[in-house]
Structures are given as structure tokens and as C-alpha cells.
Write a structure and sequence with these properties.
This protein is of the alpha/beta class. Helices cover 29% and strands 13% of the residues. It has 4 helices and 4 strands. It has a 4-stranded mixed beta sheet. Helix 2 packs across helix 3. The C terminus is likely disordered.
Length: 141
Amino acid sequence: MPLRHKSTRHAPEKRRIAETVADPVAPGEVVGLSGSTTTTEVARALALRLASGHTEPPGTAVPTGPAPTVVTDSSKTGRRAFARICGPDRIDTLVTDTGVAPETVAQFTGAGVEVLAVRLLVDARPIARHRPIGPTPSPLV
């Protein structure tokens, strides 16, 4: 499917996910992004946020630091892709939207991954925070 069509599919979800991930990034911090339509939105959100001087309200919990974070809209969770990037054992946090299926959340949290699901309203802060199951502590507490 051509990129111009892919970028318009689930666009509101991708924007909210991107805003959630971009908000805690400070000027001068390094962010590594892979190639996807969601990470393209993260790059846009970073550029807009840093250019406007936006800061996150105190007390908002979002992923920060060197922990591997996966960003994707819920339409891509629970499905097989043409290529595997890594297994859940290499991921600390998944940021997606509230359309993520409960069984998918259970699979990720069972593997020790924290899942942040953002809503698609005015406020993009996470409304569903799913902690990993088991003895693995979350690095984002």
C-alpha cells in the first residue's frame, strides 16, 4: 500500500500516540525512530512541540529515558507483520490507542511490557495504564 494511503489510516490515533510520546522529550535529548507512519507522526509532534516550547503538565506519566518504547496504533497490534523487529522481551513500553484488544494487552503485560493506551479526545494523556504481570518491575513507575 502506498505511504500516502497508509499515513491517512488511523490518523487521529497516530497523532494522539505521537503527542503522548513526544511530550516528555526535552530540547537536546536524543530520540531514535524507526520507519513507520506512526513514528513519522512522532517526528512531527517533536518538531512542533519543541518549536512551540510546549511542556507537559506536572504529574503526567509518560515514557522517558533509554527504555525501548514501541509506538503503534491498535490496528497493528495482535497481527503478524511481514517482518519481525523484536520480541516483547526487548520492549519496556507499548504506546497505542484505546482500541487495543484486551487479549493483546494481556499478552504484552504478561510478557513484562507496560501498555499505555491513549484516548482520542482533546486530552492525549494515557487513560489506561496496564502494568506488567509478574516480578518484573516497570522502569516507568
